[in-house]
């Protein structure tokens, strides 16, 4: 069958579509990731692709989800209030669905950076480049770096990616969108405080990770660092820290 290259990712070369499936390079973490995706499917969570095993070339096979990936070409899809609400609900539904997941005894995750805990298996890259906005169904893709983490570690990262839109939006608008997301996730008051405390540190963890990997010469991170991704995350972290009071007011007001 014809293989259609899928572009858009920074990390995995060789992602292709074959019929109704996607083929991606597998890694030592793939069996654990497929156990996770199988669990999500079995409990009826529709926001992730179904895992379909390995193909004859050893690549992972996943359900192809038809739709648009918002980043970078269709960010407009994320601008309506209903979109940021849908993302907040989707992250909540994922976290509730994953709560009952028991990883295989020999689970091997790809852990890029330490999280702030391990209450769930988190996605770690819930961002506009890893969302497929499909007709009737939105789903997160790119589960390669799923690993132990916390709900708020995932949500702080998602808030950074989905609430701070459009690029260059003012603090008031970003704070308003963050409130929509927090309400959609149904955060408690205590969690709202915790989330605000994590926003800057979560972004800074990205900067520090890319910096360390770049210094060690590890690809693809070195290339990302060289093309300004480190600077981007540092600026984001500073911005999130600087406006801490605005986020807190919006979330608690
Ligand atoms: N299950 C899927 N259904 C539909 N499209 C998909 C699916 N998986 C991947 N794609 C498409 O392939 C592109 C790259 O996939 P993916 O995000 O998995 O790669 P990556 O290089 O690991 O990404 P990243 O840079 O975010 O780490 C996506 O932008 C999307 O267009
Ligand atoms: Mg991706």
From TrEMBL:
Picking any one GO molecular function of the record gives: transferase activity
Q: Which residues are in the Aminoglycoside phosphotransferase domain?
A: 106-167
Q: What keywords tag this UniProt record?
A: Transferase
Q: Which SUPFAM superfamilies match?
A: Protein kinase-like (PK-like)
Q: What protein am I looking at?
A: Phosphotransferase enzyme family protein
Q: Which organism is it from?
A: Amycolatopsis pretoriensis
């Amino acid at each position: 069958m014809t293989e259609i290259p899928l572009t858009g990712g920074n990390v995995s070369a060789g992602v292709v579509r074959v019929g109704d499936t996607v083929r991606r390079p597998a890694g030592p973490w793939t069996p654990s990731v497929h156990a996770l995706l199988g669990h999500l499917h079995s409990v009826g969570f529709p926001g992730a692709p179904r895992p379909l095993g390995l193909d004859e070339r050893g690549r992972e096979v996943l359900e192809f989800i038809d739709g648009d990936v918002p980043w970078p070409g269709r960010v407009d899809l994320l601008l309506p209030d209903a979109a940021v609400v849908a993302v907040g609900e989707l992250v909540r539904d994922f976290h509730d669905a994953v709560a009952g997941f028991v990883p295989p005894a020999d689970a091997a995750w790809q852990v890029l950076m330490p999280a702030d805990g391990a209450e769930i298996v988190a996605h770690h890259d819930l961002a506009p480049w890893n969302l497929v906005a499909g007709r009737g169904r939105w789903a997160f893709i790119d589960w390669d770096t799923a690993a132990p983490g916390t709900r708020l570690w995932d949500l702080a990262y998602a808030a950074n990616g989905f609430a701070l839109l459009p690029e260059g939006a003012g603090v008031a608008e970003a704070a308003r969108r963050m409130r929509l997301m927090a309400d959609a996730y149904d955060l408690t008051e205590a969690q709202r405080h915790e989330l605000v405390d994590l926003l800057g540190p979560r972004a800074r963890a990205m900067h520090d990770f890319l910096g360390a990997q770049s210094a060690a010469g590890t690809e693809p991170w070195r290339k990302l660092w060289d093309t300004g991704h480190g600077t981007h995350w540092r600026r984001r972290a500073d911005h999130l820290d600087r406006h801490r009071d605005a986020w807190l007011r919006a979330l608690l007001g």
